[in-house]
Design a protein that fits this description.
Layout (H helix, E strand, L loop, with lengths): L7 H8 L3 E6 L4 E4 L1 H7 L3 H4 L9 H4 L6 H4 L4 H7 L4 E3 L2 E8 L7 E11 L5 E10 L17 H6 L4 E6 L4 E4 L1 H7 L3 H4 L9 H4 L6 H4 L4 H7 L4 E3 L2 E8 L7 E11 L5 E10 L17 H6 L4 E5 L5 E4 L1 H7 L3 H4 L9 H4 L6 H4 L4 H7 L4 E3 L2 E8 L8 E11 L5 E10 L1 H27 L10 E8 L7 E7 L9 E9 L3 H21 L3 H15 L6 E9 L4 E7 L5 E4 L4 E4 L18 E4 L5 E5 L1 H4 L10 H11 L5 H15 L9 E8 L2
Antiparallel strand pairs: 1-2, 1-6, 3-4, 4-5, 5-6, 7-8, 7-12, 9-10, 10-11, 11-12, 13-14, 13-18, 15-16, 16-17, 17-18, 19-28, 20-21, 21-22, 22-23, 23-26, 24-25, 24-27, 27-28
Length: 672
């Protein structure tokens, strides 16, 4: 059987994003669009003309009525048998779960309405089905019937009213009810500007009334209103509509009868105080393909097979700066001049090219069915610097199924690309900073007699402010057997903290090697850091000299978390309290050194607040008590294993919470 070539209306029908079918009065399929083919996997050619509920099989695996069939059922019988179906006028709507349609089942939204002949007799039914399992696309929905203006308007997301030539309300949609608080039942049929009262507290003309005003009079009286052909657009502030006033965007257009006479006017109002987005707007007219394209948010144009422009929408006018009137009918690639400053093929032209030739010449163009998609960079558009664009082109067909043209939509994705580039550069810079910071950390911990030492830093982000250092005093023979041990935490996060950490590490290291008294080394380091700290940052620090000769640690605690000292002889713990303030806050501060012996089995755990301030889902802190318990429990282990047990305990404690702060640990254990 040869399939009849699609009509121009069929081409539009097939372009609909929702799966749609049409059945005759006797239940035979008259239309089965591309989206329905994609949803069911059944080609239209296999379904057209079929009856006996065969169209239900892809969904239910059996023949049974679907929503479109219920359109023909009397209302009383429908209400008696199908209580899950909602009737809105002569339209049926249902949400349904079909367990066997796809693996795991699918939730579908469906809407069905009758179709009438010119005498008003029901000749069939149309049903639209949408897969709402992943997302609902109510804003993309187009009204499927033009029989009654009120039904169309009720689907609009924006507050909308319609008046006749006498200025009486003939439609007042649900969004308008929600916006004004006035039910449609109280407003229908009202005139004398009563519909202005909810907005202005008085009777006065609103934008929809100005549609009937001659252009010269309108321009003379209302210079803040923009006229786009026969449509009026305005942004306005109404101080008394709601407390604090409301900014509204409004658009009004005339309505025509089939003879082209003005029969009324329609106004749509959007509250832009809360930044209602334009993508919620539904196309209000089906009169022609050009009308539909004019409302598309993406810049769109169409050409015939000879390459002459047949459609150039408003978004394209805005993008190129060229009015449709100047471009309609033009050929010879003139439509490429605004983009490339030369006459050359665009994506729409490639639709007419054989697939093999297209793939050999344009490897960067992606084909999706009969559509072409491309991302491209245009270096100069209307004198501006280069822009990135996404474009999509599809063929148009005549009733015989011959390609009669092509349509192309273009979207400026420059901001997205630039953001992606910035993010990539930022990630690269962070990685470099992380590598530099990692290079500051000792790769290997020097060991001296009588002690077992282990240390590690776990960053919360790529870079941070925690650091530790091990300074070998091996330059002079007298210093042999001495290590400088340092754990510090810089205020702040990210790259600034990492830079301040680098400065602090260098300053402390230099002064530690110069002065043998930790208090003097830290005092001089504080003066240098304070002088260079212009951003109010500071660093807490614990620094000590570990001596092999007398098995002691001489230390300074500059505002840092007190390390925990574990004594093996009596299995007790104590804290190494502060001996001075943080570095970088105030110059000329005094710091005190303290010396303590370290016997075999004794343990000192130096840490940053990322350990004790780790939190769990109950918002509890890990705390010093838990840390002390871990140290006592695993005191018999080597320093490295004690460190690992502490990290494991912190991770287990906060396993369902992200790491908010850097963690640094340095463990010293006395040996025989």
């Amino acid at each position: 059987m040869v399939r009849e070539a699609p009509s121009f209306q069929d081409a539009i029908f097939d372009f609909l994003p929702d799966a749609t079918l049409v059945i005759s009065r006797d239940g035979r399929v008259l239309a089965w669009n591309n989206a329905m083919e994609a949803l069911t996997g059944v080609p239209a050619v296999q379904m057209l003309g079929r009856g006996d509920y065969e169209y239900a099989i892809p969904f239910y695996k059996k023949r049974r009525p679907i929503l479109a069939d219920l359109v023909f059922i009397p209302e009383a019988e429908l209400e008696e048998k199908y209580d899950t179906v909602e009737r809105i006028g002569d339209t049926l709507v249902v949400d349904i779960f079909i367990p066997d349609f796809k693996p795991g089942g699918v939730y579908l939204w469906a809407k069905a309405s009758p179709l009438y002949d010119p005498e008003g007799n029901v000749i069939g039914a149309i049903e639209t089905i949408r897969d709402i399992t992943e997302r609902k696309r109510a804003e993309q929905e187009m009204a499927r019937t033009t029989r009654e203006m009120a039904e169309i308007i009720d689907f609009l997301p924006d507050a909308t009213l319609v008046i006749d030539l006498d200025g009486k309300v003939i439609a007042w949609n649900k969004a308008m009810e929600a916006m004004t608080g006035v039910p449609a039942g109280e407003m229908m049929g009202r005139g004398d500007y009563e519909y202005a009262i909810p907005f202005y507290k008085e009777r006065r003309p609103i934008l929809v009334n100005l549609v009937f005003m001659p252009e010269t009079e309108l321009e003379e009286k209302y210079d803040f209103i923009e006229r786009i052909e026969d449509t009026l657009v305005v942004d306005i502030f109404i101080p008394d509509f709601k407390p604090g006033g409301v900014y509204l965007w409004a658009k009004a257009s005339p309505l025509y009868d089939p003879e082209g006479n003005v029969t009324g006017a329609i106004e749509t109002i959007r509250d832009i105080t809360e930044r209602k987005l334009a993508e919620q707007e539904i196309v209000r007219s089906r009169r022609s393909l050009s009308d539909i394209i004019s409302f598309l948010p993406d810049a769109t144009f169409a050409i015939d097979p000879a390459g002459h422009v047949i459609t150039w929408n408003r978004a394209m006018e805005e993008l190129t700066g060229i009015p449709a009137a100047e471009m309609m009918g033009k050929g010879d690639y003139e439509y490429s001049l605004p983009f490339y400053q030369e006459r050359r093929p665009m994506l729409a032209n490639l639709i007419f090219m054989p697939e093999a030739e297209l793939e050999s010449l344009y490897t960067h163009v992606e084909r999706e069915g009969d559509m072409l998609v491309v991302d491209t960079f245009i270096p100069n558009l209307r004198g501006r610097s280069g822009r990135y664009f996404w474009a999509k082109a599809s063929p148009l067909y005549d009733p015989e199924g011959t390609i009669t043209g092509a349509i192309e939509s273009i979207r400026d994705i420059t901001e997205r690309r630039e953001m992606e580039g910035k993010l990539a550069r930022s990630n690269a810079e962070l990685q470099i900073a992380a590598d530099i910071q990692k290079s500051f950390m000792p790769e290997k911990i020097p060991q001296i007699g009588g002690f077992d030492i282990a240390a590690r830093t776990v960053m919360a982000k790529e870079v941070g402010g925690d650091f530790f250092d091990v300074i070998p005093f091996e330059i002079m023979t007298l210093d042999s057997g001495t290590l400088g041990l340092l754990v510090a935490d810089v205020s702040g996060k990210g790259v600034p903290a990492a830079l301040f950490m680098a400065l602090s590490r260098i300053v402390v290291r230099v002064n530690a090697l110069w002065h043998r008294d930790p208090a003097k080394a830290i005092s001089d380091a504080n003066n240098i850091i304070t002088e260079d700290s212009k951003s109010g940052m500071f660093v807490t620090l614990f620094f000590g000299l570990l001596s092999e000769a007398d098995r002691t640690l001489t230390y300074v605690n500059a505002g840092h978390n007190p390390p925990i000292l574990y004594r093996s002889r009596d299995k007790t713990t104590e804290q190494l309290i502060l001996t001075g303030i943080v570095l970088g806050a105030v110059e000329n501060q005094e710091y005190t050194s303290r010396t303590l012996p370290i016997y075999p089995g004794d343990i000192i755990v130096m840490y940053t607040d990322g350990v004790t301030e780790a939190i769990n889902t109950g918002n509890e802190l890990f705390g010093e008590d838990r840390l002390g318990t871990i140290i006592r429990k695993y005191a018999h282990l080597p320093a490295r294993e004690i460190l690992e047990q502490i990290l494991s305990a912190v991770e287990e404690f906060s396993k369902d919470m992200p790491q908010f702060d850097d963690i640094t640990l340095l463990v010293i254990k006395g040996t025989e």
